[in-house]
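Q: Hi! Curious about what ATP synthase complex subunit 8 looks like structurally. Here's the sequence.
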Amino acid sequence: MPQLNPNPWFLIMLLSWLTFSTILQPKLLSFTPTNPPSTKTTTTPKHPSWNWPWT
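A: Let's find out. The predicted structure is below.
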């Protein structure tokens, strides 16, 4: 069964990961995000609880 032979596929996988790690990843990480996270604290509004007739 030639599908189980890892010789050519392991090298292709290894080279693709090395390409991604060395070339593509620094290029992608250099982009600035369009919506940077804000340091504003969020407060949750206090809502009155429901008065259920069966409780």
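A: A fun detail: The first helix runs from residue 7 to 29.
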